[in-house]
Amino acid sequence: MAIFACSSHLDGRSSRLIAGLLLAAVSALSSGCRAQGASAPGSSSATLSPELARKVALLVRAKAQLPFNYDVRVTDRRPSTVTGYDQVTVSIGEFGKTLKPMTFLVSKDNQTMAQMNTFDLSQNPEAITSDAGRPARGGNENAPVKIVVYDDLECPFCARMHKQMFPAILDRYGDKVRIVYKDFPLVQIHPWGMHAAVNADCLAEQNDAAYWNFVDYTHDHLDEMGVDPAAPKDKTTEKTLPMALKQLDAKAREEGEKQKLDMKRLNTCIEKQDETTVKNTMKEGDALNVNGVPALFINGEMVTGAIPIAYVYRAVDDALTAKGVTPPPAVPLPSPDAPAAATETGK
Q1: Staple partner for 259: which of 210, 248, 305, 317, CB 3.0–4.6 Å?
Q2: Same domain (yes/no): 158, 227
Q3: Lowest-pLDDT range, 157-166, 191-200, 329-338?
Q4: Which uninterrupted H or E stretch holds 177?
Q5: Whole-angstrom Cα distance, residue 56 to residue 93?
Q6: What pTM, to 2 d.p., does this model score?
């Protein structure tokens, strides 16, 4: 069993990837931050000569294997907080576009370049995405592990995960795990995903069970959405958007009647199709670098892509251990040669 992913983003050599490669490449050059008999932090530092600027730029370009159409500018030598080193700004990007500035260290004797990154450990990773106000399955709000899933009700891989993975997770961990879904419809490739998300949230405003029943039904009947049941047999596989929307609205209303919801309020919500809440959640996902679904955040750790469920178990086990809770017996990880599941992209 594996996680499968839908994505609406095209692959490409982005400047962010280049920057990431650059950080790793240049960091490897560092011979360490060591004192070299230079002045203390805050003192005046040597100027950045054109020769040294070019030397730094060529080193960065070579080690990061930047293509010819990328520009590298080295500027602004000034004191650093590292004894024996000044800092310089290295700006990188495609010619004609905004360059991305990064800070590097250059020794006072101009013989060593390095990079030192500091990271903020004060933030609780569990707080990067919240389960507040969302219908949940599994444990209560005090469960040691919370899994927040960015989900698309029209995504076939989300449907497969919904059917296979979460029953297995709840069976293995019980109330130690709390699961919530957040909306992330890939509107570029899934025409009714947004509508389904709005309808699900209309139900969630009144009743958690109604929400989950609608989510279960939509994922379980994905292949039937948009197919006219009254169409001739030779046309039964033809799908249309108007039919899918009609079916989604009918199912939401049926679930509302079943759960004895305020039908006037529900109908108003369905007819209005206010996308504000869904779009806010999509922005939240974008800020977390969600570029495909399903995307799971297990106490803040992002898990996505075509990976076996054993790796998801390992992430949950690690989160439980960090909370002082003994996880179930470990599940062996699959062989590295095991075939990965296919993924869908928006290409």
Answers
A1: 210
A2: yes
A3: 329-338
A4: strand 177-183
A5: 16
A6: 0.73
